[in-house]
Amino acid sequence: MPDRLRRIGDSLREDVVSGFLLIAGAVVALVWVNSPWSHSYEAIRVFAFGPESLHLHLSLEQWAADGLLAIFFFVVGNELKQEFVHGELRNPRRAMLPIVAALCGMVVPAAIYAAINFGQGDALRGWGIPMATDIAFAVAILAVVGRFLPPALRTFLLTLAIVDDLGAIVVIAVFYTDHLSFPPLLAAVALLAVFGYLQRGRGAAAALNRSQLPNWVIYVPLAFAIWALMHASGIHATIAGVAMGMLMRTTEGPGEHHSPSHGTEHIVRPWSNSLVLPIFALMSAGVAFPGLGTIFTDSAAVGIIAGLVGGKLLGIFGGAWVTTKITSAELNPSLSWIDICGMALLAGIGFTVSLLITELSFADHPHVLEDAKAGVLLASFLATVLAACVLGVRSAHYRRRAADAPSRTGSAGH
């Protein structure tokens, strides 16, 4: 039995498995919400529970998007920390490229949307909708269609998507949040400092870590408190997951067989892949699709589609290419620019954060809201199909090249 459980755990750590589970959840949600039984889906999604005194009386959809997804963001932040310390992103010239590309991939879609909706009154409020990339869906699609792509492309996407999400959270906080509460935000930052101190593994932190208490007794309540305070502040609570992931220690201390970063990821990743992402997809992907008739006559929907599909491609690919020409930034030698083109198309999957900004932008305009949501859905679908075509071809190319490598090596030996 232990061997079987270990094999199951290993399979659930694979991005391909989590990708199929997430896509399955999204398909079920889309079919369900567009079926005659859509009322049951909505009833489940809006079912709320949790303590109101802690600002945590949330619907199932909110628990999935704000709560469970923070676990996924923790895993991603932890993985990026490993890359910055030990991996691809140690090189500042390579780390600069996805960061600049992410910023350009936010500005250009917003500018395209604003240009299309200039003079359209309240429709202009949605300029932030096409700025966001849904990292969960993007990583899942990349895993499914790009199994033989260089690992550096996944690192590029993770870095870009994290910067993109942080930027989107700032935009929401500044332009789409009526009230930002600073006391819980400062308290969350203070507890993050405590979390970082405990990760140092020296002095009092080392003594605490060597105590008879299991680590989870200390870290789980601390992590929940950080998340709850971040949520109460009005900032999207997934930022707490990213912050804690980036604070994880990636080096081994005295008497440790592995670093806290690797040990925690080994435990958390299977739960993130098999439980967090499918539930998130099931609760978030249920968008009623009204049809194509009104989408292409609504300037907000057109701006969203143009921004997510065309703007992301132009901003990310163009920004990265120009950056390599005018700065010392460089593209990883294992990648080509057509790979970045496919990844830029993949970044056009807006979904969760885009839908959130859509709700904030058009809450008082239900007809625009419906078309805008459909625009996000259609744009994400188009971005997925286009990216899958490009990255699928590139993955096949790398697979053939890997298969040919042994024969070339053998010929060279003779």
From TrEMBL:
InterPro entries: Na/H_antiporter_dom_sf, NhaA. GO terms for biological process: regulation of pH. It comes from the Bacteria. It is a multi-pass membrane protein. Its main location: membrane. One of its GO terms (molecular function) is sodium:proton antiporter activity. It is found in: Cell inner membrane; Cell membrane. The chain crosses the membrane at residues 16-34, 54-76, 97-116, 128-149, 156-176, 275-296, 302-323, 335-362, 374-393. It holds the Pfam family Na_H_antiport_1. Keywords: Antiport, Cell membrane, Ion transport, Membrane, Sodium, Sodium transport, Transmembrane, Transmembrane helix, Transport. One of its GO terms (cellular component) is plasma membrane. It catalyses: Na(+)(in) + 2 H(+)(out) = Na(+)(out) + 2 H(+)(in). Belongs to the NhaA Na(+)/H(+) (TC 2.A.33) antiporter family. HAMAP family: NhaA. Na(+)/H(+) antiporter that extrudes sodium in exchange for external protons. This is Na(+)/H(+) antiporter NhaA. The lineage of its organism: Bacteria, Bacillati, Actinomycetota, Actinomycetes, Streptosporangiales. The gene is nhaA.
